[in-house]
Amino acid sequence: MATNPVKIFSGSSTQYLSQKIARFYGKDLGTVTVQRFADGEMSPSFDESIRGCDVFLIQSTFTPAENLMELLLMIDAARRASAHYVTAVVPYFGYSRQDRKDKPRVSIGSKLVANLLTAAGADRLITMDLHAGQIQGFFDFPVDHLEGASIFVPYIRSKNLDNLVFASPDVGGVARTRKFASYFPGANLVIVDKFRKKANEIAAMQLIGDVTDANVILVDDLIDTGGTICKAAQLLLDKGAKSVRAICSHPVMSGKAYENISNSVLEELIVSDTIPLSQSSPKITVLSVAELFAKAIGRIRDYESISSLFINY
Questions:
Q1: What is the CATH number of the domain that holds 24?
Q2: Residue 181: pLDDT above 90?
Q3: Ribose-phosphate pyrophosphokinase N-terminal domain: from which residue to which, for each copy (predicted)?
Q4: Which candidate, 45, 112, 226, 230, has a CA 20 to 30 Å from the CA of 7?
């Protein structure tokens, strides 16, 4: 059993979630002061001793550059303050969509971020629902990859929907959707195959599978502008679905996302609070991941299994 004190701190953007995580864990958040120079440069400092402590730094990297830089500086500050072990808790991992070189002369952004976290001095990463699972292999230290299904599966079950069909909004998300469907015996799987000319712009879309008279759940890791999900929902309804809902772990919600969701045929969009919503919508349901992350921190602290948090829902 570990004996080093645990201290939990939050970056500026994730206070709303960090407070809840700390409360579920049973500790108060530590205090960090972030000095900002006139040109926007940041200089974080811990307002209490962390020498010899197991430090958990919580920061989602939405609007990625600013929040990522703050997290890197906090990790560096913790390491220089003689923290025993530094864990980056990143509920939403920005740049995860850049996980491979799919055309010439592009970067692999998620690998670069992994290198930056390593260089800053992180010992471990806790995150949830990466865009691609192989991103875990970009790190040379342990990665605890939590599953949003831990909160979404019980919620869907509470709806008592019959003739349930799970839909992947693209071919790349089939594995994610199939795993989600496996928690619902008898549920079928369909695929919405799309072709893009460029990012955030769909050229064509077709359905693989049958959704006649089905209650369909679209499953994705994130929602950005909402264009894909809304068009997929319309296609599913046109093909005979009784209702269409969507689960998206990370509500990036940029551009006209809220307008797109409001005007769509979706009955409900179910998201987590890894990213805060900038406005409310009657169609959007937010489920909190705070308890899930608090339990993960506790099990890491006590050297217990993490995988038991998301099996046998």
A1: 3.40.50.2020
A2: yes
A3: 6-121
A4: 112
Residue-wise pLDDT for 227-261, tens only, equals 989 999 999 999 999 999 999 999 999 999 999 99
Angle at 174 between CA 169 and CA 129, to 5 degrees: 85
Burial class of residue 239, CB neighbours in 10 A (0-12, 13-18, 19+): middle
Integer Cα distance of 36 and 239 in angstroms: 53
Residue 283 designated active-site: no
Tokens of 60: 């989602």
What torsion do the CA atoms of 218, 219, 221, 223 make, to the nearest 10 degrees?
10
Same domain assignment for residues 176 and 279: yes
Looking at the domain assignment, is residue 1 inside a domain?
no
Count the domains in the chain: 2
DSSP 3-state assignment of 238? helix
pLDDT at 311: 61
User: Treating both helix axes as pointing N-terminal to C-terminal, what angle do 15-25 and 290-301 enclose, rounded to 10 degrees?
Assistant: 50
Q: What is the DSSP string of 106-174?
A: ---HHHHHHHHHHHHT--EEEEE--SSGGGGGG-SS-EEEE-THHHHHHHHHHTT-SSEEEEESSGGGH
Instruction: Name 5's Cβ contacts closer than 8 Å, sequence gap at least 6.
Output: 52, 53, 54
Task: Read off the amino acid at residue 142.
Answer: P
- 115 and 155 together in one domain: no
Catalytic one of 103, 159, 179, 194: 194
Tens digit of each residue's pLDDT (9 = 90 or more) over 56-106 = 999 999 987 899 999 999 999 999 999 999 999 999 999 999 988 888 999
The C-alpha atoms of residue 43 and residue 183 are separated, in whole angstroms, by: 45
For the segment 112-122, what is each residue's pLDDT rounded down to a tens digit?
999 999 999 99
What is the H or E stretch that residue 32 is in? Answer: strand 32-36
pTM, to two decimals: 0.93
Neighbours of 308 (CB within 10 A): 10
Q: Which domain holds residue 186?
A: 149-287
